[in-house]
Design a protein that fits this description.
There is one protein chain. By secondary structure, the chain is an alpha/beta fold. The chain contains 14 helices and 17 strands. The protein folds into two domains: about 220 residues, DHBP synthase; about 110 residues, Rossmann fold, CATH 3.40.50. The strands form two sheets. Strands 1, 2, 3, 4, 5, 6, 7, 8, 9, 10, 11 and 12 form a twelve-stranded mixed β-sheet that branches. Strands 15-14-16-13-17 form a five-stranded parallel β-sheet, with helices on both faces. Helix 12 links the parallel strand 14 and strand 15. Helix 2 packs across helix 7, helix 11 packs parallel to helix 12 and helix 13 runs parallel beside helix 14. The longest helix has 18 residues. It binds adenosine monophosphate (AMP) and magnesium ion (MG). Adenosine monophosphate binds next to strand 7.
Length: about 350
Amino acid sequence: MEKETVVRKIDNKDIEELCHDDSIKLAADIIKSGGLVAFPTETVYGLGADAFLEEAAKKIYSAKGRPSDNPLIVHIANVDDVENIAKDIPDIFYTLAKKYWPGPMTIVLKKRDIIPYATSGGLDTVAVRLPSNDIARALIEAAGVPIAAPSANTSGRPSPTKASHVSEDMDGKIDMIIDGGTVGIGVESTIIDLTSDIPTLLRPGAVTLEMLRKICERVDVDPAIEHLLTGSEAPKAPGMKYKHYAPKADMKLVRGDESAVLRYMKDMIKDCDKPMALLTVDEHKKDLEAEAKGNSDINILSLGSIKNPDSIAHNLFDILRKCDELGVEYILSEVFDESGIGKAIMNRLKKAAGFEIIDLR
Ligand code: AMP
Ligand code: MG
């Protein structure tokens, strides 16, 4: 059933002012009464509900069309709040939290009974994050409860990095959207699991594997990050088994040295027989545009500068959504170095492309 979705814009304010902001108060009241509010975080927009209320968590799954075994991340405003929702917390948690919270890092811990299974996707663990975005923190403070929030997109679509992306997917399905402008990072949080002996990276993000390894003696990498799981491999982050971030078009990645990739893309342009998008970088855009000579079936879209991987992370989901808007039938993207934030970029690109890579090496 359609409902009216209130959209409120909040400009940059300091956290003190935000705590008294009318829109934050309205959003907090909606959360307290079991409703749904989309709000900005530093990574992507989240779709929030009271993490303690089973019925509210269920509404998130229904608005997103999300499978009910794909757990939600619980957002808190102070490190101490973790003790209310998780137990048997290892020392390494506090070291990681001290270094990288507030920020784009989610930590999986053993859950307390107060977290309903509807929030944890039926698991005995809970994923917790303390975001750095001031609007997000003011909202959690004002609501007075931890806020369960997955990304505020329809399940399977690219995560929203702007309020307009949230409206596209959620208008009429949720109570409110807080428009806090375009998010900073653009890819979802890093997820690290601390419930077994060796910390395991379940999803790469802006707190990079290299950064985690500076703190933890050893960090394993979940195989679902690297490749499509085979039938015998069980994913640790249930979300990893679902097709994700997928644009509507058929998408592939092309890997090889720079000149070979450019030659391959130019051949695609020459043989173009359907609307397509080539995802490239600022440094290659002009060269490819010259080859396309204004052919309106060919869209050459830059993800950012190769010298600035953060810009690529920032633009990625917006560009994937643009491909849907353009109605292209085929998308071919360059690949990127997997160090630092590159691991998160490549994880999202591989998932969008169903791990289909044309290897020219
Ligand atoms: P989203 O916020 O939409 O990116 O979704 C949350 C992600 O966190 C999904 O990929 C989940 O599978 C993962 N996640 C949430 N809770 C847990 C948990 N308890 N254990 C492992 N992964 C989790
Ligand atoms: Mg998501």
